[in-house]
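thread: overnight batch results

M.L. [08:02]
morning all. the overnight job finished for the chain we discussed friday. pasting input first so we're all looking at the same thing
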Amino acid sequence: MVRDLPRDERPREKLIAYGADALSNAELLAVLLHTGTREQSVLHLAESVLGKFKERGIASIVHTSVADLAGIHGIGPSKAASILAAVELGRRLAKKAAEKVQIVHGPEDAAHYVMPHLRYEQKEHFAVLLLNTKNHILGLRDVSIGSLSASVVHPREVFAMAIRYAAASMILVHNHPSGDPNPSREDLAITDRLVKAGRILDIPVLDHIILGDNRFLSLKEKGMIS
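M.L. [08:03]
and the structure it wrote out:
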């Protein structure tokens, strides 16, 4: 049990002494859960919870319900609510931090801004990051939501969004729920089509950012946009 551990190895005491970043995922979760059960310590209970998301990755907790978590032995509605509240707080803090990016100087800025919005989505979202003449961000707007493997995107929907917000240029953005940001043939075909449409409408497509699991790929950087 946790009480049998040396004091400086107990999750709560360790956090107080060394800071939250010194704790493992299981230890952080143990602090949230507070207590275990008669059969297992709070650390073992935390590991059981994390084990449920081992294949899909810890980020998939974002899409879990109270009922799903409460179905784990030792996790009732109260503990489940605490976990989901902490996860949602983390998401909101990440989005708030991303909002500090006001000007896009390159792919990293664009990816940093959009990552908290699209990273955890289980379906493929296609969006546009709209910019003014000085590359200030006007907003991020969803264009379509597809299946787990593809989005259907039409130029008129993309550029109607740009015209509506008086954007001078745009960056295309979409996520790959698989976590792999490498482009498919469809991604390249859609990009080429929209780049050509942007030239006609004088609303240039500067880049296409594909998001994976905490990583991204810029088609511009890879030389896939001419």
